Amino acid sequence: MAVNQTVTITDETGVHARPATVLVNKAGSYTSDMTIEYNGKSINLKSIMGVMSLGIPQGASITISADGPDEEEALAGVVEVIKSEGLGE
Questions:
Q1: CATH code, 67
Q2: What residue ranges carry the coiled-coil annotation (predicted)?
Q3: Is residue 32 included in any domain, yes or no?
């Protein structure tokens, strides 16, 4: 059963190249399938081009989902990166 969490992007430039790369790399370190959802679109969080294609601005609510053997750890890890990078809360 998948787990998910919604976060609000607070970085004034939104999800741009550097934080997107950090998120994709973190997601890639887990076995679980991971997605990021914004504005009705759900994209593989392990795809840098996919994440960048969403064009997520400051103030956006995004939902991070994980589904797989390490889903709880994966979700917590990615949300922690979002917070530690100052990307969102």
A1: 3.30.1340.10
A2: none
A3: yes
Q: Is 89 contained in some domain?
A: no
> How many structural domains are present in the chain?
1
For residue range 63-88, list pLDDT tens digits in order.
999 999 999 999 999 999 999 999 99
**Chain segment 10-40, per-residue pLDDT in tens:** 999 999 999 999 999 999 999 999 999 999 9
On whether residue 16 sits in a domain, the answer given is yes
> What pTM was computed for the model?
0.94
pLDDT score at 1: 81
Of 16, 52, 57, 85, which one is the catalytic site residue? 16
Structural domain range at position 29? 3-84
Which has the closest alpha carbon to 36: 16, 73, 61, 10? 61
